[in-house]
Amino acid sequence: MQRATTIPTLEFDDLSKLPFLYGEHNSNLQYLEKLLTVQIADRGNVVHIGGEDHRAQKAAEILSKLWSKIEKSAHPQKITPGDIDAVLRLEKQDNAQDSNAITTKRRSLMPRTENQVRYVEALRHKEMVYGVGPAGTGKTYLAVAVGVEKYERGEVERLVFCRPAVEAGEKLGFLPGDMRDKIDPYLRPIYDALNDFLGPERTEKMLERGEIEIAPLAFMRGRTLSHAYVVLDEAQNTTSTQMKMFLSRMGENSSMIITGDPSQTDLPMGQISGLNESMEILKHIEDIAFVRFENADVVRHKLVGKILTAYDRHDANLVGRKR
């Protein structure tokens, strides 16, 4: 194997932030070694990278970009293998990471795939956006992040999040507690994302002041949502009537984001999904953005994408046998 004639060396000037970059027990450095087939030796705040010239240089560039992200953040987050993968995927997009980074007072976030980049751009510039695709592709999380960013910039006065409370195996009436206790499990992913970008205390205060509203879709009936950033999550579980009702709530200076996975509906057998129907009806309206995610966009554990692909292949084989 040809070795680098000049071993890249990086020196980082803030020892307190190095754990964010290196990972627990240098797990990020080890991941990068395996990914690019290089050898990384760290001596405190100095890193030496050995291997083939172009691979060693690429590893140095990735570490430099990630370190820059940590330095710029007021509240740096731990770098993960997913962040390393994101830099590699987006390196050919003319610094798309920097221009599309979502920045809030509490933390910043970079889109990790090309479709996520397209999605973030649409969320910022379109009044209505559909984000559809498999679970784990960041549809809801990115929508919440951009909503918080818009709120902190003064672009909207409030954030509204809703989901259809469709029972998947459990009846709402059988769950303990009052109405909020019954619906909160359905809305937990939204609370979790808000807590990440706002913090639990600030989220609760904004809920008390009405600057954030989180409710079942049925609570939107009869309202006009103005000066708001409105997200309908799990939209595959809306009926045709519910979807039409939701879309007609749009008011002045508002944005509407519809997210869902068309392949995972919990509606009764034979009932048409309002998500699928509305995308077909509205597909020719240029002012509406449609971003379709694929299994390759899954940013959870890498095994999730492989599992979804295997299921898709299985379903396709079943359809083929029935013909």
Describe the structure in your own words.
The chain is of the alpha/beta class. It folds into 2 domains: 84 residues, Ribosomal Protein S8, Chain: A, domain 1; 210 residues, Rossmann fold (3-Layer(aba) Sandwich). It is 45% helix and 15% strand. The chain has 12 helices and 11 strands. A 6-stranded parallel β-sheet has the order 8-7-9-10-6-11, sandwiched between helices. The longest helix is centred in the last third of the chain and has 21 residues. The protein is globular, with a radius of gyration of 22 Å. The protein starts with 8 loop residues before the first strand and ends with a helix.
Give the structure's gist in a few sentences:
The chain has helices spanning 18-22, 27-36, 53-72, 81-90, 96-100, 114-125, 139-152, 179-198, 200-209, 240-247, 274-282, 302-322; strands at residues 9-11, 39-43, 46-50, 102-103, 108-109, 128-132, 158-163, 212-216, 228-232, 255-260, 288-292. It has 323 residues and is an alpha/beta fold. Helix 10 packs across helix 11.
